[in-house]
UniProtKB/TrEMBL annotation:
PANTHER family: BNACNNG10540D PROTEIN (PTHR31672), F-BOX PROTEIN CPR30-LIKE (PTHR31672:SF13). InterPro entries: F-box-assoc_dom_typ3, F-box-assoc_interact_dom, F-box-like_dom_sf, F-box_dom, SCF_F-box_component. The lineage of its organism: Eukaryota, Viridiplantae, Streptophyta, Embryophyta, Tracheophyta. It comes from the Eukaryota. It holds the Pfam family FBA_3. This is F-box domain-containing protein.
Length: 299
């Protein structure tokens, strides 16, 4: 078979099939392992009309993934050796999932990177700052270094970054002073346009902080003022991603009404904030954590 034809066919197959086809010949092994092929296969996956997967956990520490449209449930064994303690799913990028596992004697968080398609997993080194305080995590791909990176931020504004190729944590530049990250242990950083994003607060307002994955520079992104006007109580807020766009949401209480507001930053400039959803309902009485959105397909 012609190499170009084989490349095109293999590039449309699921990952688990490619793992089997690596054994066909040395040529196919080399082809499937080539970085260019991996990039092409990833692009084909994102353009595929087949529903993406949801990855969930439950109290029995069994991972479950199923398409959003077809109710086909598949159970995955927990990659942790000790299944007596809890673990958490934090974030994902290009089919890789970042998990936190609490199964070590000191009860500090151990990070694990999982590929649900291949069932491969890797324990990551402990961060330099072993904190039991609230912290949040982000996973993203740095195209300038061709490497995946993980950013950790805690509620004391301390941050450090891990590059998977080097396997070591490095403290980042000093976080801007006089601001406080709005974090919970279940939040994840929104990664879009080559930067991580999270919500912060100052003495007077909320806004979004971004951190470039390549040049490690912080930037402020103001939120639309209309997001918080005329509300007596703000219960929940955060940032997420929708269709490759940065978005922000808030859950506010005004009188007897609960209001859920959802804004999208269409062109990644401040003036492009657009109100996407305004929903009024009386049962929204709990803060939202780690909210994800998806148009047409879901992860």
């Amino acid at each position: 078979m012609d190499v170009d034809v084989a490349t095109d066919i293999l590039g449309r197959l699921p990952v688990r099939s490619l793992l089997r086809f690596k054994c066909v010949s040395k040529l196919w092994m080399t082809l499937i392992s080539d970085p260019y092929f991996k990039m092409k296969h990833l692009n084909n996956t994102w353009n595929d009309k087949i529903p993406k997967k949801l990855l969930l956990t439950n109290a029995t520490l069994i991972l479950t993934r199923f398409p959003c449209i077809v109710e086909q449930v598949q159970k995955l064994d927990c990659p942790s050796n000790n299944k007596s303690l809890c673990h958490t799913l934090y974030c994902c990028c290009d089919g890789l999932v970042l998990m936190g596992i609490f199964d070590y004697p000191d009860k500090y968080l151990q990070l694990l990177l999982l590929n649900p398609s291949t069932r491969e997993s890797t324990l990551l080194p402990f961060p330099k700052i072993l904190s039991k305080d609230n912290c949040t995590w982000g996973l993203g791909f740095d195209s300038t270094s061709d490497d995946y990176k993980i950013l950790k931020i805690d509620d004391k504004s301390r941050s450090e970054i891990l590059a998977l190729k080097t396997g070591s944590w490095r403290l980042t530049n000093k976080h801007p002073i006089d601001v406080r990250p709005m974090l919970t242990s279940t939040d994840s950083l929104a990664f879009v346009h080559g930067a991580f994003h999270w919500l912060i607060s100052s003495l007077t307002k909320y806004y979004v902080m971004s951190f470039s994955i390549s040049d490690k520079v912080y930037r402020d992104i103001p939120l639309p003022e209309q997001m918080y006007l005329n509300f007596s109580k703000l219960c929940g807020r955060g940032v997420s991603i929708l269709g490759g766009m940065l978005c922000a949401y808030s859950h506010c209480v005004s009188g007897w009404k609960d209001m859920f507001k959802f804004w999208v930053m269409k062109d990644y400039v401040n003036v492009s904030w657009t109100e996407f959803l305004l929903y009024e309902v009386s049962i929204f009485n709990q803060p939202y954590q780690n909210i994800c959105f998806r148009m047409e397909k879901c992860y």
